[in-house]
Amino acid sequence: EVQLVQSGAEVKKPGESLKISCKGSGYSFTNYWIAWVRQMPGKGLEWMAIIYPSDSGTKYSPSFQGQVTISADKSISTAYLQWSSLKASDTGTYYCARHPPGVSGQYFNIDYWGQGTLVTVSS
Amino acid sequence: DIVMTQSPDSLAVSLGERATINCKSSHTILYSSNNKNYLAWHQQKPGQPPRLLIYWASTRESGVPDRFSGSGSGTNFTLTISSLQAEDVAVYYCQQYYSTPVTFGQGTRLEIK
């Protein structure tokens, strides 16, 4: 059974750093892309960035480029999303999601979602 | 970025009746080399993560009830629920994966009338 299990909820202050995780199981972790998707309170879904764990190749949405960093450790089948200096506007639920690979660096639709990590940034 | 626009924003339908949600893309998402539309539909129930329903615009994901169907091509797409059940109350999102960044529609909230 494919599973994406995310780390637990976080409460942080503005300016603090944070790294959240997403562990894949039940499939070959290195052969599928992992994306991060933000959902601000009461709002819709925003795709942030994607990584291919096999070679750590990344692509970022222009809206999130420079604001976050994604990484992966294929030895433990885990992807990460990190912030160096959080803002109150980073408050939201963050989902990891799996994209099957296409050809030539393509990827297809999201087929599995993690359970979400709630990040609250407040002074 | 490709902008995805859904209509309506919210919808109330009686149990057993048909529900129709539309999604329009600002650029074609039909890839000419394989004749596939790079569009998916996801369902998000309250307090839950989203769940994939449909991909390639009309292919139902395994385990999804056959009352859910997708149609359309190019820039105009539709998700239809043929006979609404109580468990279908959710927000529905279309998603294009034709180009980076992946983008979603704003969501359509479906309720029981």
Walk me through this protein's architecture.
- The complex is a heterodimer of chains A (123) and B (113).
- Chain A is an all-beta fold.
- Helices cover 0% and strands 49% of the residues of chain A.
- In chain A, the strands form two sheets. In chain A, strands 2, 4, 5, 6, 9, 10 and 11 form a seven-stranded mixed β-sheet that branches. A four-stranded antiparallel β-sheet of chain A has the order 1-3-8-7, with no helix packed on it.
- In chain A, β4 and β5 form a beta hairpin.
- The radius of gyration of chain A is 14 Å and the shape is globular.
- The mean pLDDT of chain A is 96.
- Chain B is mostly beta strands and 113 residues long.
- Chain B has strands at 4-7, 10-13, 19-25, 30-31, 36-37, 39-44, 51-55, 59-60, 68-73, 76-81, 90-96, 103-104, 108-112.
- In chain B, β11 and β12 (103-104) form a beta hairpin.
- Chain A binds chain B through residues 35, 44-47, 50, 59-63, 95, 99, 107-116, and chain B through 1, 38, 40, 42, 44, 49-52, 55-56, 61, 93, 95, 97, 100-107.
Provide the descriptors you would attach to this structure in a database record:
heterodimer; A: 123 residues; mainly beta; four-stranded antiparallel sheet; 11 strands; 0% helix; globular; B: mainly beta; seven-stranded mixed sheet
Topology at a glance:
The complex is a heterodimer of chains A (123) and B (113).
Chain A: E1 3-6, E2 10-12, E3 18-25, E4 33-39, E5 45-52, E6 57-60, E7 69-73, E8 78-83, E9 92-99, E10 112-113, E11 117-121
Parallel strand pairs in A: 2-11
Antiparallel strand pairs in A: 1-3, 3-8, 4-5, 4-9, 5-6, 7-8, 9-10, 9-11
Chain B: E1 4-7, E2 10-13, E3 19-25, E4 30-31, E5 36-37, E6 39-44, E7 51-55, E8 59-60, E9 68-73, E10 76-81, E11 90-96, E12 103-104, E13 108-112
Parallel strand pairs in B: 2-13
Antiparallel strand pairs in B: 1-3, 3-10, 4-5, 6-7, 6-11, 7-8, 9-10, 11-12, 11-13
